[in-house]
Design goal:
CATH class of the largest domain: Alpha Beta
CATH architecture of the largest domain: 3-Layer(aba) Sandwich
Distance between the termini: 46 Å
Structural class: alpha+beta
Order of helices and strands: HEHEHEEHHEEEEH
Largest sheet: 4 strands, mixed
Number of helices: 6
CATH superfamily of the largest domain: Formyl transferase, N-terminal domain
Shape: elongated
Radius of gyration: 22 Å
Number of strands: 8
Oligomer: single chain
Amino acid sequence: MTSPLAKTWAEENDIPFIQPASLKGLNFPEEKFDFFLVASYGKIIPQEILNIPTHGTLNIHPSLLPKYRGPSPLETAILNGDEETGVAIMLVDALMDHGPIIAMEKIELADKYNFEQLRDKLSDVGTELLIKILPDYLAGKISPEPQDHEQATVTKKFTKEDGFLDQQAPALSRFRQILAFNPWPGTYFDYPGPAGKIRLIVKQAHLEEDKLVYDRVVPEGRKEMDWKSFLNGLHAAE
């Protein structure tokens, strides 16, 4: 067990913190709070907690709301081949990713990032955007704008089955799966070998003249290797 990064940072900077096991019946210190900040928190926060800070509870959400509410906005944007994505800073209400928008920042996507790269990129963008707008927001110079709820889309939780690479599917679709689903839930397919099918986990690939080229794979029960080494080992076993 390790402490959350926010708690570690608070300890290092002598800032008071609480780490409750549950939000139910939670008693906050009897002092005033300017705002709360939530990021990558997958649960609904009770309204009585949202109401505590003077300026509400803010959330940094990695999509251009109301598009891609829910648990997997990054993966979904990559899978859909969106030309752009971004970050929304919103005022949290009792519904999922439903509250009014305070600020948004767009970035170009267009198959440029895998999941981890996009996560880190939007983390930086969201941090910089929050620093930029927070003084004006706390001073009452920014008014949250309601989302267009009729345009809302909701993402789903992905499973291992979503990572299966159908070799009959277009190369671009499989490439986007590999970008979106590494490290979780991972992408895989069965490769015909001399002793039967071999389950291959695909770690890295690229497109070459509209063809999908595998770069790094993990054969079932073995260590990660480059594609050429896998093929050489396969032929040596024949």
